[in-house]
Design brief:
The chain is 32% helix and 23% strand. By secondary structure, the chain is of the alpha+beta class. Strands 13-12-11-14-10-15 form a 6-stranded mixed beta sheet. It has a 5-stranded mixed beta sheet with strand order 3-9-8-7-6, with helices on both faces. A hairpin with a 2-residue loop joins strand 11 (324-327) and strand 12. The protein is globular. The two termini are 28 Å apart. The mean pLDDT is 94.
């Protein structure tokens, strides 16, 4: 269930002291297969971390030999020194692997502004120790090394007809769309051309990670990477591969949702009968980012009025007085007015389903979010590592 499930990949996760807990904090994933194809999507935040700026250059030719990731420091807003740290990280990995630094992706996660000389030394030490520890059994260690406020590591595997996709992800806070919403490494032994890998990754990300909007806060370090080894020797049907990748990314998005900082409810917002898919997404996101609605769900309050107030801020086509709202299968609002008694809605389970029926078209979209809790506020007021 890791990035080493597909043929042609080795990984490692080592501890070098970036985390005060002493847990693994540097991960390395290496492609040993006959193909060295890479694809990636990045945060659309204009405030980008040094590893993002480096990796955007690396991915331009879609050739990737390996990826190095660290937790315990974002290396963001650390100036030219920080960019040189990322460059040296890639150079160290390239030297040890006997490849070009221009083919090494780099990712960092942690506190923005952290990335001094001590940080640099530990990351470079981690690269050396990580590459020395590479194995086909190292995927789980790598998944643990990229965790920050995550309470569990997140991995997934999919595939069929002799090819496999493996993945690891981290993310618990700052989960909001912008091409990617966390650090994710996906590997496959399917034999894909660069254009095919890129198209499949963007299609999968669009309906999974881009639909996860936990707290409306977009990170500076978000990156989703796909590495293709071709080691299975099988060229898959592209539609079948894309479908499998969508399923895998959807599974990981739900795992990220389930581990969101301080959350007590996992809220699935389904928007039905919208004029377009884009409008359905806009409506769903308006609710996912509405703190009053999220606070109500935390209090087990089926306050459907906050739903209508939120969707009324969008430019989507609908009549506010012809909208139905269901909470956990109970229609609490019909045609813009009260319907079933609020007491019929049970919001005590963690899983919460909200259905908004706009009644104007055939398009649908689903957004994943969480409630707003005391624990979320406390955790983020105390976060410093």
């Amino acid at each position: 269930m890791t990035v080493t499930a597909p043929q042609g990949f080795e990984a490692a996760g080592v501890a070098v002291g970036l985390k005060t807990t002493g847990k693994p904090d540097v991960a390395v994933v290496v492609n040993r297969g006959p193909r060295k194809v890479g694809a990636a999507v990045f945060t659309s935040n204009r405030a980008k971390a040094n590893p993002i700026m480096w990796s955007q250059q690396v991915i331009a030719d879609h050739t990737v030999e390996a990826i190095v990731l660290n937790s315990g420091g974002a290396n963001c807003f650390t100036g030219s020194f920080g960019f040189q740290t990322t460059h040296q990280t890639a150079e160290k990995a390239a030297e040890l692997l006997g490849v070009s630094a221009a083919d090494i992706l780099v990712c960092s996660t942690g506190l923005i502004g952290s990335g001094d000389e001590v940080f640099r030394g530990k990351v470079l030490d981690g690269v050396e120790k990580g590459i020395a520890s590479l194995s086909t059994d190292g995927g789980q260690f790598a998944a643990e090394a990229i965790m920050t406020t995550d309470t569990v590591s997140k991995t997934a595997v999919a595939g069929q007809d002799g090819w496999t996709i493996g993945a690891m992800a981290k993310g618990a806070g700052m989960l909001a769309p912008g091409l990617a919403t966390m650090l994710v490494v996906i590997t496959t032994d399917a034999d894909l051309e660069a254009a095919e890998a890129d198209a499949a990754l963007r299609a999968a990300t669009n309906v999974s990670f881009d639909r996860l909007d936990s707290d409306g806060c977009m990170s500076t370090n978000d990156q989703v990477s796909l590495l293709v080894s071709g080691a299975s020797g099988i060229r898959p049907d592209l539609d079948a591969f894309t479908a499998a990748l969508k399923g895998l990314c959807g599974e990981l998005a739900k795992k990220l949702q389930g581990d969101a900082e301080g959350a007590s409810h996992d809220i699935t917002i389904e928007v039905a009968h919208a004029a377009t898919e884009a409008e359905a997404v806009e409506v769903g996101r308006s609710v996912a980012r509405n703190n009053l609605f999220k606070a109500a769900i935390f209090g087990n309050d089926p306050n459907w009025g906050r739903v209508l107030a939120a969707i009324g801020t969008t430019s989507a086509q609908f009549d506010p007085y012809d909208v139905d709202v269901f909470m956990n299968d109970v229609r609490v609002c019909s045609q813009g007015g009260p319907d079933r008694p609020r007491e019929e809605v049970d919001l005590t389970p963690r899983a919460t389903h909200l259905l908004i029926d706009l009644k104007v078209g055939d398009a649908t979209a689903t957004i994943l979010t969480n409630d707003l809790t005391h624990d979320y506020v406390h955790e983020n007021s105390a976060y410093a590592s």
